[in-house]
Each structure stands twice: as C-alpha cells, then as structure tokens.
Amino acid sequence: MTATVASERIKAPLIPPSTHRYADVIHRLEAGGSMLPDTPENLKQIIGIYKAYAVPMDFYWRDLLYIAERVFLNPLPAFKYFISQEYLDRPNSYAGDQSQLRIWRGGEKVHPELLEFMERGETGRMSKLFHHLWHDRVNMEFAEACMQAMLWHQGMGGRFNDYLESDAYKSNADRAIKAYFKGNPLMLGLYALFPDMFLEQVRQLSYTANLGLFWEVMAPVFFEMSDIYDEGGFKGVPDAMDFLVNGIFAVAGRPIYHHLYIGDECYEIIPKSEGFTWLYEAALPYVEAVFYRTAPFRGTKSYNAQAGQVPADQADFHYGILYADVFPVGSAGIPPTLLMQDMLHFLPPYLKEIYREHRRGEEDELVQLGITFQRSMYNVTSAVIQALRCALLYPLDDTNPEHLMANRRFFEAQMDRFLRPEARLPDIQSQDYR
Amino acid sequence: MASILETAASVGVFNTLLAAVDAAGLREALEGPGPFTVFAPVDDAFAALPPGTVQTLVDNPPQLARILKYHVLSGSYSREQLVAEDNWDSLEGAPIPIRSKDPFEVKNATVVNADVVCDNGVVHVIDRVILPG
Lengths: 434, 133
Description:
Chain A is mostly helical and 434 residues long.
C-alpha cells in the first residue's frame, strides 16, 4: 500500500490492453487517473461544487446528529430541523485545534457562509419559523432521503445492519426507549403494544447517526480541497482524487456509533466498543446506497414494475447520481433538486461564471450545477475505487503481471456497473455535456 | 521457546505492530496459550499507509483491535497447511484468502518469512497490512 496513487503510476505496460467497452477509462484508472477526464475545466467544476456542497453539509451532519441523539423518538418532531445551539456550536471532530487528527486546516466551528444563509436566506432577515415555513432554509429533507436510502437498501457490506437485528441492539434500544418516554404512560403503552414499530424507528435513527458521522468528516475534506485549489495547489483531477483517497484512509478507523442523550445522561444504543468503522459501516454503504442505487424519484417518471422497468433485485437499482438524468430538476421534493437548491446558495464566483457562459446561463443554472455535481461524484467514486484497490489489491506500479491482471479484473468489474444505458460515464467524458 | 509477542519484540522490525497490540488491549489475549497463527506486518508495511491512518486507529482501540484481529487465526497453521485451503476465517470474522502458494501470498500481502514457530502459535511475516473486505 502506498501513500498516494500518484507515486504508483505505471511506466510501461506489462499486460495487454483491456478490451472492455470502457477500456480508455480503465487504462486511465490503471495510470492513476480518475473516471473523470483530467481537464482544467473539470478540475475547476468539481472543486467549486465540493465547496458549494460542504457548506450545507456542515448543517446536514450537525442536524442529523441532533435528530439521532436528541430529538430521537419525539412523536411530533416538527422542530427537528431547528438545530439546537449546542449542535450548531459542536466542534467538528476532524477539524480545528481540538481535533485528535489534524490533517485538514479548517476550523471546528460552523461555516460562516452557512450562518449567514441561516440568518437571511433568499428572502431576508426574519424569524426562524417563517424561514422554515417559507422553505427558505437548508433542505434537510435531502439528508434524510440519503439516510432512508441507506436504511432501505441495508445489506451493502459492513456489519452495521446485522447489528441492528442483534439481541444486544434490541436490548440497548429498549433501555433507551423506556428512558426517553419515562413518565409518559401513553407512549410507553403504545410501545408495549407495538414494540417493533418503535424499534424500527430507532434503527432509522441509528442510520441517521451513521450518516451524520460520515458527513462530519467529508465537510472539512471538501473545504480543504477548495482552499488548496484557491492557493493553486491541485495540478489536475488526479491530484484531487489522490487527496480524497488519502482522506478515506486517514479516517477509515473513525468509530461509527449511536448515542442518545437525555439531559446529561448518555444511552449507548450502538457503543463505540462494537468496533464499527467509518470506512466499512458508513462510507462504503453510503456510496452504494446513494451514488449507485437509491430509488426512483416520485413525480419525475412513471415506471411499470410488471414490465420489469424496476429491477426485482435491490442490488440492481440504478437511480443514484451516477445514473441520474438531472434535467427534470425543479419538481417539488425530489432529493437531487433539494441538494442542488442548497448548493446554488454557496457557489464560488468562478463556477457561476462558467454557468453564465453556457447553455441558457442563469436560467438553467440548476441543471448545469447538477451535471457538475455528477462529474464531481464520478471523481469521488473513482477515489473510492482506487482506495479499495489500494486496500485489497496491488499498487499500480507493481511489477508482477498477475497482480496487474487482478487490478484489471477489479477495474473492469467496477466499470461493468456502468454498462447499462442510464449510466452517465460516457457523457462525462465530454465537456459538452452540461 | 518464546511466545509470539516475545519473538516479535526480539526481531526489532515489528515495533508498530507491538505498539498497536498494546493500544488495542490485545497483549493479554495474545500472551495466552492460544494457539494462534499471526500474519505479522513489518514496520514498513504500517509506514506505507497514508498519513493519519494508523493514528486514527490507535486513537480508537476497538476499531484498531478489529483490524489487528484480521491478522490472526485461531489455531497454529504452517505454510503447508495454509496453502491447502483457499480461505481461512480470521478472528475478526472476515475470511483471509490465500491467493498464491509460490510465492506465498496472503490476500494482497507477500509472506516474506513463513513458519516462525513460537510457544503459543506460529508467525508468518508479511510485507503489507491486510484489510477486510
């Protein structure tokens, strides 16, 4: 295993060329590149969107943890998006001087652009309640949709989901539920009548904590990438991918857990001692559930399940950002539109300029930024593929042809997932796809 | 004869592994009667991991223990016995594939020194940290 993909780039081919439909992309991956072509505009687009994504993400992770740890089973959670000051001030565990792992330079506090947006929104300064009702706020519904995709798809590697079915988890959840509803005979009575319904809600909250802990790391990573780019630090798309690969390794061992706080008392529903890790129990299931699978979005297209238009096997679902047609944005409530709306508020000026210069300018900015986001997520997926190759297979500069063939088979198997016609991999090879 | 950990300490190229065993609280278990089969990565293998990887694990003992347990089998197995099977169940729970008999390769690591027999098991020295998945 090596510190960076860059240091492993091969010099002369020891194995014959691939005959896969995406042979060009496979050869690029074998040379230490990304699925996204290395062009200055691609680099500019992906870094710009990482920054625009990191700002709402700074809200998502805080509020997800607030919901999982504090709001918990509130039967009327009307104010779950009204994050408490404590969680807004919560120092990021992987940024700031208090962090045990000081790799990324950003501070631990909530991002100032987020605070400014929470204050003013698009409309202007008014009370939090009006901002909420007018929907002039961060779209937490997107974060919850990602969490639900993880909950629904479940078996995607790691041991998190198995644990949610274990007796230990059920016992921890039971203790937490009884403590949360202490002195509330109505809810305790309902719990006695429908215990599985409550348990399933707690499982959903465990995935809420899981996603919050996952994004807590990604926000400082993306901010750092934006800062490095602004300083002229990245020379190309592969540099940006390498940075992500190293980031994935650096925090791979971060514990994934679910704690409930009632006052100052902590109830460990999933204790850290279970040994669940950021890489296996959060990052890999997240990529699988959200980038690849998710589910058809309501209101964008009709599917005929009897005609086989929706796969019978969940593993074949292909509605994630890597396959999405980002054109039908604007439909109320569909998760990618919610995210694109969130990112629109925090675009760096150089990205706005690109959008103004192409297609219909500001009028179809949401579509253009959706495609930028698609490009950027192909780069993140490339980083995940290279990280897995690093962890489970061989260096790119290995001199054993059998090892290089094992890498080749791995890359080809990954590219097989993009053979279906909905995949956007061929589209992102061209700069004209906007 | 010395135990697995005493043998490792005497060689001088397993300093990171031994520190990790202590940080994960696995010393007592590995000093027990076992027997165990340990795939022991050398210091250079840990050093090749990207910056921060080892630190995050050392800061979180249960997570570190999980990765270390992936390097241990219950029972004492020589190279000859190991290459007779395709997969072996690690103490972590995930299988460890034997990918090549000659050269002797365990998952994506090469065994650089096999069959170091100890009091409570056997050590095979490997050139990379292996990870489940």
